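tl;dr need the bound structure. longer version: we got a ligand (K7E) that a collaborator sent over and nobodys looked at where it sits. i said id run it. heres the input, straight from their email, havent touched it
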Amino acid sequence: MVKIKKVSKVLGGIGLFIAGLFIGSLILGNITAQGPYDRALEIAKARQLNPDAVENALKTYHPTGVLDEYIMFSSGGHSGQVIVIGIPSMRILKYIAVFTPEPWQGYGFDAENKKVLQGTNCDPLRAKLTWADTHHPAISETNGDYDGQFLFIGDKANARIAVIDLRDFETKQIVCNPLGYSNHGAAFVTPNSEYIIEPSQYAVPQGGAYAPLSEYEKKYRGFITFWYFDRKAGRIIPEKSFAVEAPPYWQDLCDAGKLESYGFAFCNSFNSEMATGKPLGSPNPLFEVGASQNDMDYLHIVNWKKAEEIVAKGGAKEVVGIGGFKIKVIPLDVAAKERILVFTPEPKSPHGVDVSPDGKWIVVGGKLDTHATVYSIQKIKDAIEKGKFEGKDKFGVPIIAFKDSVEAQVPIGLGPLHTVFDNKGFAYTSVFIESVVAKWKVGEWKLYEKLPVHYNIGHIAAAEGDTVSPDGKWVVALNKWAIDRFSPVGPLHPQNFQLVDISGDKMKLVYDMPIPLGEPHYAQIIKADKLKPWTVYPEVGWDPVKQAKSPYATALGKERIERKGKTVYVYATAIRSHFTPEIIEVEEGDKVVMYITNVERARDATHGFALGGYNINLSIEPGEVGFVEFVADKPGVFPFYCSEFCSALHLEMAGYLIVKPKKE
Ligand code: K7E
Ligand code: CUA
């Protein structure tokens, strides 16, 4: 009775597929005629979509109003932002402004969040920065599982860490590392977000001092910082944080141990040669060569639980670093002696370190290797306990022999980088040079399958794939190069995120998504229902930086202008479709402080506050108080207006700031 006309040979599969759908629908009783599916078949034929493509389209398409099952938080690379993407639809939901001013969100323009952008402990250099190289986002965890409360992200270029509150998806804090200017493996969290881990990348003289390269070994140092996170306050507390001093080996990524490896952190390094580069005319090798001579570098095994104890006992020294900001540092000799820091060799330009869901295995990639190298936490613990070391490095750090820590080397292809996991015991490793995702079995240490991706995959993300309980279902390949995948838009190409269905026996490439801002590095994918964001602020008069009712909240009818000396305070409200007051008169040279309360309770009823000539634009979401602060140093008449199209009379939601010239 199902009649499919004009089914060509090539399209037979689609016909069957759609016929299947049709029959399924008949059984479910929700359609009565075959017409709409004939039309779908025609479209598929006209677009030359094979059955696979049709299936992929059906897996990702979300009709209007249908929400995604997962949310991915991706690093925004150079944009200094975080990209929020629905999975599997691959729809961009938001860019979260973090290290870069962002006018739509009013970030960096509102007087309060401008201070967030400048950092809590940042030296003048970094307080002025307007960009970042964001690498690794980390969702806060409870018992090794994402809890959906906070998100952290690191800035590789300037050694900074940001805290984002996932109740309103806004950045609340930026901290600067006083020990150096670059990080890499940041941010990674310990299983209860006790600490946010930030290792340095390019070693510098500790605390930003000067020392010539000839003193590299003596004076240059790396660090692995453990930023203490106060969940209640939603802030990093620098005073309760500490760092472990590390040799100048160019530390790389880190991951925190969990379950069996709880209490440890693992970080790569890749310049154990301590190459110092090639000055012009010098016979020294370039870093590219100099830092890749050794067959093995050192995996850093950090016992942060023990480090905590040593710090509590006063075993750390206080280092006054960049900008005069202080941090407690466990000196290298103490770290070595107390076995807070222990090494084991890791092969060929190591990169990526990922702990398996059960915490038993530590998987390390190698940019020039062909294996994923797997270490056993049991073996590592045994060696440390028995004091079974093959020697010490130049700085006295004990080294566990490779054979005493390694469990397996899985041959998966050239250039393995990062590994994530599913719920069936498989690991998925990004293999950069080969441009594939390699699927292999944990415990069997056997390669199952390679899926070509396009092109040059860097990181890889899986649904809850780095937690104690991965979900399976989806993997996203974060590819560095797109080359021919999208319509050309000039020599700077977008990145390519490719969605891979991992629910079946074979991996299936489902979707290509261009990312047109910055080069993302890591991403994490959380089950959407774990997030509980507000749709409007909890109370009218909310200060989103303090996450509390603001003392400057203004109720309707209580608007006022108060002058105190040379400062004019404006307590204003915003509601569709007017500001009150809408005429503000000040004198040239006055400082103007405005608190604008959006008294709306309707979802999405955001008002903007744009003031021409003064570089001000606020986004005042329902319930929020916007904070404006500036010196009215230009006389004239300056229109201000609501910059969100909020209502039919939105254009009328405007006013004048009148700055009267100084009398001669
Ligand atoms: Cu491999 Cu910064 Cu995680 Cu980039 S790092 S890809
Ligand atoms: Cu308020 Cu437009």
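gonna send this back to them w/ a short note. Residues 12-28 form the longest helix (17 residues).
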